[in-house]
Amino acid sequence: MRPTKKLAATTSGLLLALGLVSASAVAETQALAAGADCAPVSVARQKAGSHATERGTLTADQRRAHEKETAQLLSAKGVQSSGLTATAVTVPVVVHVISKDTTRAGGNMPQSMITDQINVLNRDFAAHGFQFTLTKTTRTVNRKWYDMDRSGAEASAKKALHEGGMNTLNLYVTGLGTNLGYAYLPDTAPSLAYDGVVILNESLPGGTTANYNEGDTATHEIGHWLGLYHTFDGGCAAPGDYVADTAAEASSASGCPAGRDTCTAPGEDPIHNFMDYSYDPCMYEFTPGQGQRMRDQWTAYRA
Asked: Are the C-beta atoms of 232 and 194 separated by less than 8 Å?
């Protein structure tokens, strides 16, 4: 049990894996989204010890370009960031369960665990103006799609299963290799079909993935889907993760390292933040600044 998470949510190691998918997946992407003018950039949360498998790095120039685009979109809509409020946004969620067979061992997760995951999301995001409503669960048995890390699997699965527009969260619950999950920031998917979040099935609340089975992988990845960077993006140098009230952090945390402080700037590392890489039992908060940023990003890209 983690009562501190419930309390914090009502108030409010692993390395960065932002980069290009494989060449074959890009080829499928081009067929899927003819005319797309950017390569897919996803953000992956990985199991401890998987540092060598990171997909790449979102560069400082890419982050600056995203910030510039966001400002332009908000301006075009006549909105200033400081003027956005925490008026509740209801996000429809379509969950796609992809399994090897019809058994739990084969990845066919019970509906009760999906319901528990939606409850975790509503606990974690409620104080920041977001509510998630499960509108549909699809179930697909497909061994080729089951490992979404496999080249080509993502393009094929998402082309067939994706529903709704930019305001609909497509959550894919399936098997993965080294990753616990990954997502696309609002403007980085090469087509609408790619937009969404992929999570390891056993990271659902009550799953079997030790240290990562309280549902926080989905919270972390949906944070990216709503435009948040990792707390350690940019390291100790300003502007870091582009959120003023998250303390600077030189690198990702792993486990629950109390008192960790990797930068000379004020404040210990935000190891309890959902956008770090700590174990699930250690993660329980977004900051007000992150909440404001998520609302900015929603208004710019998904409203």
From this structure: no
User: Residue 176's CB: how many other CB atoms inside 10 A?
Assistant: 25
Q: Nearest Cα to 121, choosing from 7, 229, 198, 218?
A: 218
Residue in the block written with tokens 């696309």: 184
Q: Which residue has the higher pLDDT, 35 or 137?
A: 137
Beta bridge partners of 198: 172, 182
CB atoms within 10 A of CB 34: 8
DSSP-based three-state secondary structure for 37? coil
Sorted by sequence, the CB contacts under 8 Å of residue 23 that are 6+ apart come out as: none
Question: pLDDT tens digits, residue range 43-83?
Answer: 666 655 333 223 345 688 888 999 999 999 999 988 877 66
92 CB neighbour count, 10 Å cutoff:
16
Strands across the sheet containing 89-99: 18-19, 42-46, 179-184, 197-200, 169-174, 89-99, 130-141
Give the count of alpha carbons within 13 A of 40, CB side only.
29
Angle at 130 (CA atoms; ends 128, 131), nearest 5 degrees: 135
How far apart (Å, rounded) are the C-alpha atoms in residues 179 and 77? 36
**Mean local confidence (pLDDT), 119-146:** 97
* Active-site position among 221, 249, 268, 285: 221
CA gyration radius for the chain?
A: 18
Q: Is 249 a catalytic residue?
A: no
Question: Contact, 297 vs 291, CB < 8 A?
Answer: no
Question: Measured between alpha carbons, how far is 145 from 142 in angstroms, rounded to an integer?
Answer: 5
Query: Hey, is 26 helix, strand or coil?
Result: helix
Cβ count within 10 A of residue 8: 18
Q: Which of 51-55, 73-77, 167-171, 221-225 has the weakest average pLDDT? A: 51-55
Query: Phi and psi of 96, rounded to 5°?
Result: -110, 110
Residue 97: is its pLDDT beyond 50? Answer: yes
